[in-house]
Q: What sequence folds into this?
C-alpha cells in the first residue's frame, strides 16, 4: 500500500468517527433520559427534551442581552444599567436623539422653571479638583472597540459649607457633616468580596463628600482601605460589637466609636428586601470573617430578625440615647415602612419624649439584597415613593421634622431618581446596586450563590481575580461625581441654586391618562384617608 492508500484509510476512519460519535452519544443520552425518573419531559422526549432545559438555563442572559427592550428587565432595565456604566467608565451622561422613557406610563416629573439658574449662580464648591481617570473611545466597530484610559481633573460638585447636611448637629459631641447628598448604602464584607469593598472604599474616599455604610457584617480593614467616612451599621446579631456569648459589648462599641473614620452608627431594624435575620453558612465564616464579626470560625450564623436589647419604642430609644452618649457620635436607624399605626406611635413618642435617632434610613420594599426569600422581597414593605413621603409628612405634622434627617434608598441610581427622592422629603440618598454596577456587576442575579462571574458579590479568590481595584475605584468616584453634577443640573432647571432646596412643590405626578397632580396634594390626601380610617 502506498502513501495515498494510507491517507484514504485515515480519511475514511476520520469521517466514520465524526458520524459514529454523535450517533453513539445520542443513543447513550436517549437510554439515560428514558430510564431516569426525575424529569417527565426527558422520559417522554429523550435527548430533544434537553433543549428545553438548556434554553431555560441561558434564558436570563438571552433576555438581558437579546430579547428585552432597553426599558424592560427587572430589577433594572438595560438602559438603567448602561446609565450607571457610562457615568462610571466615561464620566458621561449625554444621549442623542431623545429619551427612551415611556412617556405614556405614569410617573414623577421635575417641574422646570421658565428662567433656570445660570452656572455662575449655583451654590457649588468646585474649588478643589479630583484627580480621576476616564476612558475615551478611539474607534468602535461591530466586533471591536478601541479605547484608552487617561487622567482627568474633575469638579467634585460639593455642597457649600452652609448647605452641608449635618447628622447629630445638636445631640452629640461629634456631629457628622457631609458635603454631598449621595452615599453608599449598607453592603457587608462577606456579601461582597474584599476587592469590591476595597474598590468602593477607595473610590468613595477619592470622591469625598460622601460616606460608606459597612452593612451589618461589621467593620473591616477593606472598608477602611480608601479612608472614606464610615457609617457603621449594627444589626440584630451585633457583628463587630459583641461578646463571645453574643451579648452587646460596650467595650467593642467604644473601640469602634473612637476610630476617626467612623462618623455615625446605624441600627438596622429591617431592609427593603430582607425584613428577617441574616444567614451565613459555616463554610464562609473564615478566620478573617470571624475576627471582624466576633464569631466562631466555621460555625453557621442565623441572625435573629430583631434585637434582644429592646422590644418596644421606649426601650429602643433609651438604647439609642446610651449609644450616642457613650460613642459621642450620631446614631440612626434603618426601617422599612409598613405598619402605619406602629410608625405613628414611634413618631408620637419622639415628640413627647424628646428622644429618638439622629437620622432614619427609609429603605423601600424594592431595595436589594444578596440573599432573601421571594415572599419577603416581593410583598413586604412599601416602595420608596410611598414610604418616604408618609414618614416625612408624619414628622412634619408632629412638629419634629427638623430633629431628624431622612436617608432614602431603593433603586435610586440616577440623578433624576435621586432628585425626586429629595423632593419627596429625603435629606440624603443611599445607593447599593448602582455602586455594585460601577465596580463591574453585570446583574447576573447569583449574589446568594458565591459564584458572581464579575467577582463582586463573591469571596471566591479565583472569581475576584477579574476585579482590578486600582481600575474600578475610579469608576466608583466618577459615578458618584456624575450623580452630584446631575443633581446640580436638575436644581438649576427647577430654578434652585442648590439640590438641598428640592421640595414637594418641585415635582408632579402624571397618571396614565395624562392627568397631572401636585405631589403635595397626593400626600395630604393619603394622610387624610389614613386619619379617617384610624378615627
A:
Amino acid at each position: 500500500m502506498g502513501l495515498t492508500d494510507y491517507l484514504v484509510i485515515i480519511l475514511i476512519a476520520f469521517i466514520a468517527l465524526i458520524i459514529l460519535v454523535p450517533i453513539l452519544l445520542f443513543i447513550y443520552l436517549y437510554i439515560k433520559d428514558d430510564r431516569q425518573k426525575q424529569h417527565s419531559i426527558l422520559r417522554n422526549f429523550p435527548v430533544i427534551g434537553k433543549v428545553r432545559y438548556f434554553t431555560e438555563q441561558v434564558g436570563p442572559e438571552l433576555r438581558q442581552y437579546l430579547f428585552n427592550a432597553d426599558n424592560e428587565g427587572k430589577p433594572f432595565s438595560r438602559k438603567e444599567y448602561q446609565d450607571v456604566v457610562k457615568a462610571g467608565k466615561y464620566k458621561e451622561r449625554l444621549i442623542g436623539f431623545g429619551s427612551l422613557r415611556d412617556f405614556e406610563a405614569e410617573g414623577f416629573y421635575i417641574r422646570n422653571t421658565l428662567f433656570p439658574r445660570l452656572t455662575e449662580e449655583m451654590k457649588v464648591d468646585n474649588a478643589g479638583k479630583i484627580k480621576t481617570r476616564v476612558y475615551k473611545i478611539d474607534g468602535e466597530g461591530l466586533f471591536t472597540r478601541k479605547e484608552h484610559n487617561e487622567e482627568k481633573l474633575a469638579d467634585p460638585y460639593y455642597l457649600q459649607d452652609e448647605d452641608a447636611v449635618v447628622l447629630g448637629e445638636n445631640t452629640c459631641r461629634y456631629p457628622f457633616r457631609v458635603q454631598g447628598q449621595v452615599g453608599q448604602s449598607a453592603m457587608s464584607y462577606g456579601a461582597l468580596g474584599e476587592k469590591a469593598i476595597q474598590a468602593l472604599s477607595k473610590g468613595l474616599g477619592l470622591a469625598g463628600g460622601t460616606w460608606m455604610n459597612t452593612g451589618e457584617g461589621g467593620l473591616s480593614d477593606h472598608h477602611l482601605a480608601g479612608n472614606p467616612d464610615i457609617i457603621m451599621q449594627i444589626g440584630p446579631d451585633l457583628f463587630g460589637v459583641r461578646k463571645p456569648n453574643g451579648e452587646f459589648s460596650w467595650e467593642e462599641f467604644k473601640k469602634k466609636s473612637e476610630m476617626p473614620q467612623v462618623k455615625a452608627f446605624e441600627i438596622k431594624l429591617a431592609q427593603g428586601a430582607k425584613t428577617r435575620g441574616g444567614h451565613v453558612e459555616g463554610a464562609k465564616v473564615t478566620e478573617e470573617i470571624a475576627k471582624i464579626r466576633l464569631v466562631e470560625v466555621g460555625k453557621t450564623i442565623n441572625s435573629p430578625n430583631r434585637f434582644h436589647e429592646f422590644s418596644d419604642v421606649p426601650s429602643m430609644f433609651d438604647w439609642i440615647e446610651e449609644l450616642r452618649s457613650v460613642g459621642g457620635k450620631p446614631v440612626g436607624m434603618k426601617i422599612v415602612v409598613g405598619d402605619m399605626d406602629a410608625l405613628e406611635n414611634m413618631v408620637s413618642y419622639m415628640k413627647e419624649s424628646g428622644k429618638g435617632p439622629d437620622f432614619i434610613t427609609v429603605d423601600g420594599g424594592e431595595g436589594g439584597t444578596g440573599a432573601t426569600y421571594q415572599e419577603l422581597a416581593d410583598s413586604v414593605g412599601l416602595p420608596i415613593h410611598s414610604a418616604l413621603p408618609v414618614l416625612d409628612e408624619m414628622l412634619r405634622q408632629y412638629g419634629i421634622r427638623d430633629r431628624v434627617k431622612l436617608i432614602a434608598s431603593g433603586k435610586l441610581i440616577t440623578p433624576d431618581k435621586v432628585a425626586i427622592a429629595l423632593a419627596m422629603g429625603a435629606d440624603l440618598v443611599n445607593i447599593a446596586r448602582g455602586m455594585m454596577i460601577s465596580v463591574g456587576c453585570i446583574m447576573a442575579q447569583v449574589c446568594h450563590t458565591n459564584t458572581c462571574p464579575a467577582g463582586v458579590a463573591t469571596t471566591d479568590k479565583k472569581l475576584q481575580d477579574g476585579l482590578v481595584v486600582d481600575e474600578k475605584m475610579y469608576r466608583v468616584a466618577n459615578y458618584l461625581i456624575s450623580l452630584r453634577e446631575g443633581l446640580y443640573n436638575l436644581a438649576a432647571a427647577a430654578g434652585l441654586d442648590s439640590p438641598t432646596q428640592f421640595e414637594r412643590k418641585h415635582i408632579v405626578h402624571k397618571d396614565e391618562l395624562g392627568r397631572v397632580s401636585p405631589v403635595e396634594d397626593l400626600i395630604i390626601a393619603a394622610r387624610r384617608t389614613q386619619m379617617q380610617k384610624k378615627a
Notes: The chain is about 40% helix and 15% strand. The longest strand covers residues 130-140.
